[in-house]
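Side project, low priority. Logging it here so it doesn't get lost.
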Amino acid sequence: MAEVIRMPRMSDTMTEGVIVEWHKKVGDKVKSGDLLAEVETDKATMELESFNDGVLLYIGVEKGKAVKVEGVLAVIGKAGEEFESALSAAKDATPQATKEELAENKSTAVASPATAKVELPAGTREIRMPLLSDTMTEGKIVAWNKKVGDFVKSDDVLADVETDKATMEVVGYEEGTLLYIGVEAGSAAKINEIIAIVGKKGTDISAYVAAEKSGANSAVVPTSQPSVTTASNPTDASIKETESDDSSNERVKASPLAKKLAADKGIDLNKVNGTGDHGRITKKDIDSYVPSASSTPQASSSTPQIAKATAPAFVANGQESYTDTALTQMRKVIARRLGESKFTAPHFYLTMEINMDNAISARASMNEVSPVKISFNDMIIKSAAMALRLHPDVNSSWMGDFIRHNHHIHIGSALALPEGLIVPVIRFADQKSLSQIAADAKELYGKAKDKKLQPAEFSGNTFTISNLGMMDIEEFTAIINPPDSAILAVGAIKEKVVKKGDGFAVTNVMKLTLSCDHRSVDGAVGAAFLQTLKKFLENPINMLV
């Protein structure tokens, strides 16, 4: 079946594109990946590649002319295939392809017997999957913003589509009733595949849809002897003759990027051998070009010449490459849970600076008598647990249609492993001494690194702490670890010069940032929690009495 090639959306703000150059002509064979044309958008001149194999049967837009996004550019099919019906059913076919143009192109294409085909009813238009990025081959429908039966305007966003680079909006550019959705949310469609049909309310398109699904519209009668006229398919000799007449960079076959690079480097494009389609010069040819000795200007014997220093052309060592790493089950769970948290829980953030001078002194004193070395993270766990006892609203869980206020305090302490992030849980942290918390933490971290943690040891948290201070991170925001209502991000302890009396002194400070779920924790509640936490850390003796 002949495929109509439409103008793709090559940037998020593009509404139309200008054909800078066609690199194929009617009658040429086209392979998937071949360069069809260069298109100037609102942001750059880009290359339009073919996603189809076959013969170029029709070109609908002349060089230098503009066409709107989704407008008809060309038709690719089998040699001699009938394509007029596909054009008449395509959007903007009539204004872009007049009867005279169709008659002219008919002489360059091989006529074939008409095939039985179900046409779209008059007044209906197909919406096809657009090319939303230069490397996209298919798009996944994330969500439909309209449903069958809805009236849509030309600038309405029909659906959100996930490409290989981002999730983008698809605008239909058609006005009418949404009669058909061809790809369900969660499923993917290839470039140019029909994803919807818009038309007059009540129009029956069931026969057309059935024919498309069954493949009946793809059936064609093969021709025995394709032939192409000389006028539309010049001989190789004429091509070479035309190319040999080119004497300027503007007429040499080269991509816009290659032309720009050549101009920047002072390279004459006529002296570069193109390795692209039909000798087309590409960026790679410019990057690897080395002037020959004969092309170097010779100094005149009568006129002194000043040697001009030029940087040697850069030649890349090696090729572009990458490695695909399969997701671990841990990484899959992290992606799912934190993705759900970030995009469903309305996060807000509160940051407070803590003076750690007393905490540093207290820790040194406690470690002189403690059976287990107490870390600053252990002190933060203990102070957070004590503060949660006084602010129970922060020690809560959002359960969808109710809030659960936990009476126990289990503190999760995030730990980074090569496989991903895991959160060992210090249970009943408010009831334990600092040395007991330190012992529990040491045991749990060891088990986690040896992959021996049991489910009960990394679940059930009511509040979480994420500490990147040991990696010299001063301040950051953390994503809430569900079902918690808050998470505390801990930065590094840094020296800071402050004014004391008539002079200045150095003090040690640490920044804490509390991420809160606004559905269950209000701003004033989070701020009060941080104030209490600050009191415990700045005067650790308060945690011991």
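Brief comment: The first strand starts at residue 3 and ends at 6.
Revisit when time allows.
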